[in-house]
Amino acid sequence: MAKKNISPQHLDTPENPDKKTQVRRKKKKVNPVKRTLVVIGTTLLSLVLIVIITGSIIAAALTVYIVQFSNDVDVIELDLSDLDLAYSTFIYAYDDNEAVTELAKISRKADRIPVTIDKIPQYVQDAFVYTEDERFYEHDGVDWQRTFMAFLNEFLKMWSTRQGGSTITQQLVKNVTSDDAKTWDRKMREIFRASQLERYRPKQEILEAYLNFIGFGGSTAGIQAASLKYFGKDVSELSVAEGAVLAAIPKNPEVVNPFADREQCIERQRETVLPMMYKNAAISEKQYYEALEEELVFVEPNANSDSGGTGIQNWFTDMVIRDVTLDLADLYGIEEDEASDLLYNGGFEVYATVDMEMQNAVEAKFVDYTTFSDRVLTDPPEAAFICMDYQGNIKAVVGSNREKVGSNVYNRADRALRSPGSCIKPITSYSYGIEKNLINWSSVFRNEPIITDMIDPETGAKRTWPYNYNSRSYDYAGYFTFQALQRSLNTIPAQLIEMETPAAVFEFLQNKYQITSLNAYDADMAPLSVGALTDGISLRELVAAYQPFGNAGIYCKPTSYTKVLDSNGKVILEHKYTPLQSLGKETSYVMNKLMQTVIEGPNGTGRAARLSVTPLIGKTGTSQDWHDLSFVGCTPDYVSGIWYGYDVPKQIPTGTFYSSAQVWKNVFGEIADSMPVKSFPENNDVKELYYCTRTGLIASGTCPTGAVGYYKSDCIPETCPGNHAVTEKKENTELA
Question: What letter would DSSP give residue 269?
């Protein structure tokens, strides 16, 4: 076979490669970075396509669902008569024979006065619009921006409080339809109905209906009724400042209204409503500053202002309404204003724990000035009282010693946080020390201050603290535990807290006595030893904390109601009685005996509270600079407490009011002594022993004097060796 003639350029040599080899070599030289980017790009593109395809499928399915859902949603024919669909709620109490009696009937229906939109000044309309629904005139019934942020907050918790997404139109829809189920379906129905409503009704008609419906505190509903109630004038006569006050109320009508908390209401007007009006050009700069400076004149409440013509609610009714409102808000995850509307319009039955005979008696004492003083003061301190049994059932409450001029007004027994002063000592230093066996009945302490880390700028020495409430000096004498509590010395509780450690006592106070108003700054010497708390304690929680001393160590959460039934008779709220063994039974018994000395002892600060026939234990409390005076007392049936002081703290004039122990007796003494005589729970494990009055140890045959003390079975002192010297002259270091 003839050889094929191959030219040199076709030879496959390193110097002269053929085309296939050249291609292979080019492929080998592809940049690896480029290849990586190609792979990544291809992957991302695939993912994007998957997302688009999946999203399209979901969107199509949602579209079909939404279209079908919207077809099933009825069109709302707006009629103001539909807005009046409210059912009265009844509050019941039990009499002495356990028969149910009506305590109160509440409804927002009675105090609504319709008014047309043309009678409402534009700036008053704007006050509500820009406070409640800033984009009302721009959206078509649903503010998608607010809705999205509210939805997002449910999962991300970007704000500490729940964010409302409902527009004015949506709020109106919910009230017209009475469709308030807590479901996603209900929310979608509300959104579609709001959109439909705005297609069939103009904005002004929607706003008119809204302003005629919303609640303004108590039984008052609608802007016209609110204008007459708070300012005594027709809505058409309201100024910018007055209109802004009314717009501040609907967010939380039971709390932020001029009769319940005028200061908070005006604060919201100044810090929220007026700035929103100015921001949205509803008022000029001049009008804004004039409104801020305007002196607001409110009408005086009258007997029918909050109760639909049935008279002013008593203090207990106010409390149970607030308690149920808060629990409904928690149950349904709604705002307080929504819960309030639900309570007033929902046709509920509320069963209260009140003892009406006791409630009436205590209220009568509070309006009698001689209960508090034998002098007439132009500016007397305010006062409050609360009583509960040992299951936590609140039996009587009074929130002021002034004449009650309205319903749902500020209740100082429940809502005011004040310093308990020395009333904190039994629930911190003493009960902790007894519980942990760090102290006993006759442990010995010197009446001297502790040395702090603070430097006195005048002397350069470390400061000493604390002083005793009735003296700025120390006698440096020795005192037994019971004597220190009886005399209410401050120095010894400070020494105890230092020994026990503030952190441990703080945890004890929170967990054992269920005090909810504490914060991290209260885990310190002054708050825990003398009651100088950052915010204070409500009288309600303070009194409840004393339950273990008269109840074998058991604490029960206080409540003003037992159960709540809806309009169908279904129980939706029921108080759970869950006793907490806060203290050991022996600790409780020893503390009971210690606190008897406050009432019975020769130097007891609570001697004025001593009753004629009924056993009583208790403790007085005085805060720094005499701003707060308190007394908490336990009888075998009840635990109750009194507080008095000024709303804006200042010194109570010395000698003008009776002591807190005397005021407590004036209010509750006759009631307590009218009960069948009972005794506090006994404890056979606690040892009743004689102690040596020289050493505080268990007395021996050689001790010159002894007295009875009460000791836990696992914390009995040693026996006194009897080698103490008896001298005629009392030394500083000797026991008082």
Answer: I
- For residue range 651-676, what is the model confidence (pLDDT) as tens digits? 998 788 899 999 999 999 999 999 99
Task: Say which amino acid occupies 597.
Answer: T
Q: Tally Cβ neighbours within 10 Å of residue 166.
A: 23
Residue closest to 346 by CA, chosen among 100, 94, 569: 569
How does pLDDT run across 473-487, given as a tens digit for each residue? Answer: 688 899 999 999 999
Backbone dihedral angles phi then psi of residue 633, each to the nearest 5 degrees = -125, 145
Report the pLDDT value the prediction gives residue 13, as an integer from 0 to 100: 52
Confidence of residue 111 (pLDDT cuts 50, 70, 90): low
pLDDT more than 90, % of the chain: 59
DSSP strands (E only) in 196-288: 220-221
First-to-final CA distance of the chain: 139
Confidence class for position 22, pLDDT limits 50, 70, 90: low
Question: Measured between alpha carbons, how far is 410 from 644 in angstroms, rounded to an integer?
Answer: 15
Q: CB neighbours of 710 closer than 8 A, spacing ≥ 6?
A: 441, 589, 590, 593, 594, 686, 687, 688, 689
Q: What is the CATH number of domain 105-314+332-340?
A: 1.10.3810.10
Taking residue 352's Cβ as centre, other Cβ atoms within 10 Å add up to 26
Q: What is the mean pLDDT of the chain?
A: 85
Taking the C-alpha atoms of residue 691 and residue 700, their distance in angstroms, rounded to an integer, is 8
DSSP-assigned letter for residue 735: B
pLDDT at residue number 17: 55
pTM score of the predicted model: 0.70
| Antiparallel, parallel or unpaired: β 444-446 and 617-622 | unpaired
Distances (CA, A) of 609 to 18, 287, 400, 606, 674: 118, 57, 21, 6, 15
Query: What is the reported pLDDT for 664?
Result: 98
Q: What is the pLDDT of residues 242-252, one digit of tens each?
A: 999 999 999 88
DSSP tally for the chain: helices H, then strands E: 24, 20
Beta-bridged to residue 450, according to DSSP, are: 465
| Number of neighbours of residue 195 by Cβ within 10 angstroms | 18
Strands (E), 557-627: 561-565, 571-574, 580-581, 617-622
Contacts of 97 (CB under 8 A, 6+ apart): none
Residues shown for the chain: 736
Angle of helix 122-132 versus helix 203-213 axis, rounded to 10: 80
Classify domain 395-673 by CATH architecture: 3-Layer(aba) Sandwich (3.40)
